[in-house]
Design brief:
This protein is 46% helix and 14% strand. The chain is α/β, with parallel strands linked by helices.
């Protein structure tokens, strides 16, 4: 069976897709991990043989639904788990309206869910498609389990001192594209039609996040000045412009603004994590990492205040209490080891994420894929053909970029090209290390072959 795994934000999704790929390859399947352009065009034009196309959402906008229909017409099946997840918020009803529709689920062969709440909501709301909805849990959560935490290697840019991790989620004000552009995208994709209050919420979020940015900057500077000897790592969200944090914290001693790799590797190596309304809080709870939730009085009426993540960890409401709590966690970290066994998780977390102690979520997903295509035989992936196809795409892109530059010199500015911070170049040695690490942790004895096809495409299969 051929399996195509779509990655949008590599620092968020790549490692969980790698877990899926290794488990599928160990069972005899061929797996491609790549971006949407290569997978979509490859399947539509026949450069990739049919198989399972596994994507990051079933948002019912016109362009995505047309893309999925074209992929289905090529002979492939579409499956999905929503990577946005909504596990940091109470309730799932509004999210189910924004990210799904009967028509988008009609196109899919399987919808995988994170836990009880999204599973039950989607089954009830889309009753006619209930047999397509599976409570598997998320492969991303698999990698948060204490038993698999050894997967995450030490970041190359880690400070020499023990460090507090500050997880940022200020994309609404630090994203590189403008608010006008973002609202245009939301309108074009039908979000504002499916949730009329979303526009007001977007403006409130932007307003509140400007305030939150200043409050967090002041808190970080306070911790830097009075802490007991640790460093601070500020981890911007993948969509944030990292330079914004560098401007705010310029000259602050012992503070590092770093976005290297997945946030999980930083969570693992930190002695504690500080956040406000961030999904990382749930990861910390599951992986048994000390968590500090900072909710000062200035943020009491913040749009995220009733957020699920803000109910977790040690809640503090002032800079002095924040300093006291983090200093105490630092002292504890110096004097004892944090236990790595799974603790009793809060009911609110267990409602959001499904964790089967006997089987990984990734294993459940692979088994569903096998049931979907159990009676079909698919052609093997031709690596040479795929490389030629990607080369042609790259040449066409270079020609297009040249023409834009040429016409720009005559016609003036025609738009600014945005750097893609979502899907970063794949490093061969890093992926090779990760594959061997996962094989060892999962006790997979079969030989797995890994081929780097391009900067953002890999093939994984069993030898």
């Amino acid at each position: 069976m051929n399996i195509y795994l779509h990655v949008e934000i590599s620092s968020r999704e790549f490692d969980s897709k790698l877990l899926l790929a290794i488990l599928a390859a160990s069972r005899g399947h061929q797996v491609i991990i790549s971006n949407i352009e290569i997978l979509e065009k490859g399947l539509k034009r026949g450069w990739l043989p049919p198989g399972i196309f596994h994507t990051k959402s079933l948002t019912p906008d016109v362009f995505k639904m047309k893309r999925h229909q074209d992929i289905i017409n090529s002979g492939s099946k579409v499956t999905s788990i929503d990577e946005e997840s909504s596990i940091d918020r109470f309730g799932y009803e509004e999210f189910s309206n924004l990210r799904y529709s009967k028509e988008s689920i009609d196109q899919s062969s399987a919808v995988f869910t994170w836990g009880d709440e999204d599973f039950e909501t989607l089954k009830k709301k889309y009753l006619s498609n209930s047999e397509k909805i599976f409570k598997t849990g998320s492969p991303r959560v698999d990698l948060w389990r204490p038993s698999i935490l050894e997967y995450w290697k030490t970041p190359k840019t880690i400070p020499k001192k023990p460090f507090l991790l500050v997880s940022s989620n200020l994309g609404s004000i630090f994203e590189s594209i403008s608010l006008k552009e973002r609202i245009g995208i939301m309108k074009e994709n039908g979000y504002l039609d499916r949730s009329p209050r979303l526009l007001k919420e977007k403006f409130l979020r932007v307003s509140n996040d400007f305030n939150k940015a200043i409050i967090f900057t002041e808190a970080i500077k306070h911790l830097s000045k009075y802490n007991n000897g640790y460093d601070i790592v500020v981890r911007p969200h993948p969509i944030e412009d990292i330079d914004m944090w560098k401007i705010l914290l310029n000259g602050t001693p012992n503070v590092h603004v770093i976005r290297e790799g997945a946030i999980s590797s930083w969570v693992k190596k930190s002695f504690a994590v500080m956040h406000h309304a961030c999904t990382t809080a749930i990861e910390c709870t599951i992986s048994n990492k000390p968590l500090v939730t900072y909710v000062p009085s200035e943020l009491k009426n913040h749009i995220y205040q009733e957020n699920h993540s803000n109910q977790l960890g040690h809640k503090v409401d002032s800079k002095d209490k924040l300093l006291e709590k983090i200093n105490s966690l630092f002292e504890l970290a110096l004097n004892r080891k944090v236990e790595t066994k799974i603790q009793s998780l809060p009911p609110s977390v267990l409602k959001k994420v499904y964790i089967d102690k006997n089987e990984l979520s990734a294993e459940k997903i692979v088994k569903v894929w096998e049931n979907i295509l159990s009676q079909k035989i698919y052609k093997p992936i031709n690596v040479t053909l795929l490389r030629i196809f990607i080369l042609k795409m790259n040449i066409n892109r270079l020609i297009g970029d040249f023409l834009k530059i040429f016409f720009k010199s005559y016609l003036g500015p025609i738009g600014t090209k945005k750097n893609n911070q979502k899907f970063l170049k794949i490093n061969h040695s890093d992926v090779n290390y990760s594959i061997k690490k996962l094989q060892n942790l999962l006790k997979i004895k079969k030989k797995i072959e890994f081929k780097l096809i391009s900067d953002n495409t890999i093939l994984i299969r069993r030898l």
